[in-house]
Specification:
By secondary structure, this protein is of the alpha/beta class. It has 8 helices and 10 strands.
Length: 259
Amino acid sequence: MTRFNSEKYKNPELYIVGCGPGDPDLLTMKAFKIIKSAKTILFDNLVSDEIINITEPDCLKVYVGKKPYQHSTPQDEINRLIKFYAHSRGTVVRLKGGDPYIFGRGYEELDFARRNDIACTYIPGISSMQTCGLSGIPLTHRGMSEGVWAITGTRKDGSLSADLQLAARSTATVVVYMGMSKLAEIARIYVQAGKGTLPACIIENASLSSQRKVHCCVQALPVVASEKKLGNPAIILIGAVAGLASETRFPLETLTKAM
């Protein structure tokens, strides 16, 4: 490991960069330039190899990923590495899948860096929920969905966000992140709300060549996911708009009634 030298770099800097859903062509130009010129990167498991390979050969690459239900790098350790490399190498580029400020804990790291006198720059990324459009599903559609709920399926204590109870009563499109282990609970909430037949879609590895997706009614989510052996990383989309790209083609009047 590089020796810590607080005297070498008087102006340490951190870039918190959103890498999007994985396809390098979906990077912003600003993100591409920062990654290309990076000397030190800390990257998550959702950052694709194609994006990591944009870096120059002399770039120091440090994996700090967090995989569901597996051993993960603790946040305190990630913070320690940010501080160490920012002071010993000058600039750290923190790469995160999707957008760092949408369930990416990006602001926690930015706040830590600022409290340790490290200048910070945030670069947005395309969030995985926006990849619904790549599968022919708009997040909003006039007369069908006039809003979007982005909900975490795994809160700090491991539970599903209580906001889903409220979202299920609305006509908005609902996107659940990190919710594959909560499919039965999600389905039950919608059934109890009288919306078990609402269209739903699961998209696994969105934007990548390994992408898979299934369409079904929300009450069938647990069964269909099990049959197709779908897993993380995946997003769960619920709402009338999910039926627009279904292979079974829900009739428009059915979708409108489902609202």
